[in-house]
Automatic annotation (TrEMBL):
Segments passing through the bilayer: none
Stored Gene3D superfamilies: 3.40.630.30
Pfam families per record: Acetyltransf_1
Domain N-acetyltransferase: 100-248
UniProt-recorded name of the protein: Transcriptional regulator, GntR family
């Protein structure tokens, strides 16, 4: 019997507390409308409202299926986006503020890259005897591998050339091929593309190397102007006549 009375008293007390709290809230709201709240009371009330709104928003984000589905769609779209690397400005006569960017190439880009590779071989006066079909297969193999990476050199939305490179076991970078289309040369585009690649390694504390053919003095001058310096000389002793060379023996050529 006593327990029942105590429970009834507790329930009555709680009910009175709720009513008193409600009355106090109503009085506070009236005082707020009349501008009678003290600054500290007003600040406390604003903080309470902000906390309540934040709690409601957090609960909605946690339990709203539509919002969760929308967030997932946004994340998937961001993952699908092909985000290019850092860009730098160019002054090549194509207009102020033109941007040079490095954009990863795909396997389906192999035919065009192989065509540029052919022009690179001609420009360097290389002795590489590979046919167009062999160059295409080699380029496709590089693009399918995890070792080599080809990137388009983009001038705004136009393709100006490409860069083929890899990261060696010691973490250093190696540039195998750099080609800039002839109409874009002597404009600083090649230098800026190299800078984008080199700066990435510089920030990681690694170095970048490149092989330059003796038959390509223009290329040697270009790489020197880009800050590269000779550190070794690779010598080659032919064991067969030039007519007897095959594509496999020219793997080290451009």
């Amino acid at each position: 019997m006593i327990l029942i009375v105590l429970i009834a008293l507790l329930m009555l007390t709680f009910s009175l507390y709720q009513k008193t709290k409600s009355v106090q809230e109503d009085l506070t709201a009236i005082r707020e409308k009349l501008g009678l709240l003290r600054p500290e009371e007003l600040a406390e009330r604003e903080l309470k409202r902000a906390m309540e709104e934040e709690a409601k928003l957090a609960e909605r984000e946690t339990h709203d299926p539509e919002l969760e589905a929308y967030n997932r769609e946004i994340e998937e779209e961001l993952e699908r986006m092909h985000e290019p690397e850092e860009s730098v400005s160019s002054a090549d006569g194509s207009g102020p503020g033109a941007q040079v960017r490095l954009v990863p190439a795909a396997v389906e880009d192999a035919p065009r890259l192989a065509q540029m590779n052919r022009m690179l071989i001609e420009d360097e006066r290389s002795s590489n005897p590979m046919s167009d079909e062999e160059l295409l297969e080699r380029m496709r193999g590089w693009l399918l591998s995890e070792e080599w990476h080809a990137q388009w050199i983009m001038l705004d939305e136009r393709t100006a050339g490409y860069l083929l490179h890899r990261r060696s076991e010691d973490g250093n970078g190696q540039i195998r091929q750099l080609f800039v289309e002839r109409q874009h040369r002597r404009s600083g585009i090649g230098q800026q593309a190299v800078r984008l690649y080199v700066d990435r390694h510089a920030s990681a504390g690694t170095e970048v190397t490149v092989d330059v053919l003796e038959s390509n003095p223009e290329g040697m001058a270009f790489w020197r102007s880009a800050g590269f310096r000779p550190y070794s000389t690779r010598l080659k002793r032919p064991t067969k006549s030039a007519a007897g060379k095959n594509a496999a023996e020219s793997e080290e050529e451009q």
